[in-house]
Amino acid sequence: MAQEQDPAVSVCFMVEIDNINLGAFNSCEGLGCEVVMEQREEGGNNGYVWQLPTRIKYSNIKLSRPVTKDTEKVTGWLSGMIAGVPRKTAHISAMTVDGTVVARWSLMDVVPVRWTGPQLNPETVKVATETLEIAHHGFIDAGR
């Protein structure tokens, strides 16, 4: 039985921020949102409490990978913000090993929150990794 859609078991995440390709990351956490609900009690109504949606909150996104030549792209992007932190548009594409895009998310008003570089310690034999954390104001149509 042939599968029509790849379940994206093994993926990497290509990240592009305003046409700056930051390369592939092997971990992406935090893609999501939450509708904030406000509760209102109505006098004389003992059956339920009104649940009113107020706003949408978007969680920060953490992208991690082993240190590569693309690490210089991230630090170059961050160093360009000395005069201020302009909000950008970002695109995150989940790709299979053969380069097929499985899913794509576009984010508006992206700003960097934190970058953590590798811990270089000769006593521990670990892969040197970096993590980039970004905040955003929501999803936009990927075609925009």
From TrEMBL:
UniProt-listed PANTHER family: CONSERVED HYPOTHETICAL PHAGE TAIL PROTEIN
Superkingdom, natural source: Bacteria
Protein name from the UniProt record: Phage tail protein
A Pfam family recorded for this sequence: Phage_T4_gp19
InterPro entries: CHP02241, Phage_T4_Gp19
